[in-house]
Design brief:
Elements lengths: L11 H6 L4 E13 L1 H5 L1 H13 L6 E10 L3 E10 L2 E11 L6 E11 L1 H8 L10 H20 L1
Length: 153
């Protein structure tokens, strides 16, 4: 899954470098019984997971911190995933640490997408495959004829 820059024409640079946009679910991964070393390397593991998902070399990917929240037993950090200046997605890393118990790390990745692909994946009927423009015009013409006939009666 890679970001197609050429489809945006002149605005491709502005689109690709902005952090605002539509994000769709990429993957969810849970690491149970995490050791202190796993927690220390959580960001590195996140980059590795994103690298495998997009099939991009790890050294090209870097994280830009969006926000960080902490509670008594957990930490959550949300990062923008970037390749160069291009924002490819968002990675959320949640770490639950309970003393004298097992640690857990959750990874949730959302990739950046454009409007029509986002709506198509969400199931918006307007963007579903299967209908052609010609079929749509025939249906619209048929409805117009039905309305015209109803007015005449």
């Amino acid at each position: 899954m890679s970001l197609k820059l050429n489809q945006y024409g002149e605005r491709s640079k502005a689109f690709s470098e902005k952090k605002e946009g539509l994000y769709d679910e990429g993957f969810n991964t849970t690491l149970r019984d995490a050791t202190d070393k796993d927690i220390e390397l959580a960001e590195h593991y996140g980059i590795e997971l994103v690298s495998q998902y997009h099939k991009v070399l790890m050294p090209l990917i870097h994280l830009i911190e969006k926000r960080s929240t902490s509670t008594l037993t957990s930490n959550e950090k949300v990062y923008y995933v970037a390749v160069g200046k291009t924002i490819w997605g968002k990675l959320s890393i949640s770490i639950q640490q309970i003393p004298n118990y097992k640690n857990t790390i959750w990874y949730y990745y959302q990739f950046r997408t454009e409007g029509q692909a986002f709506r198509r994946r969400r199931g918006d009927s307007k963007y579903q495959k299967g209908g052609s423009h010609r079929q749509w015009k025939r249906q619209a013409h048929k409805r117009e004829q039905e309305i015209k006939n109803m007015k005449e009666e």
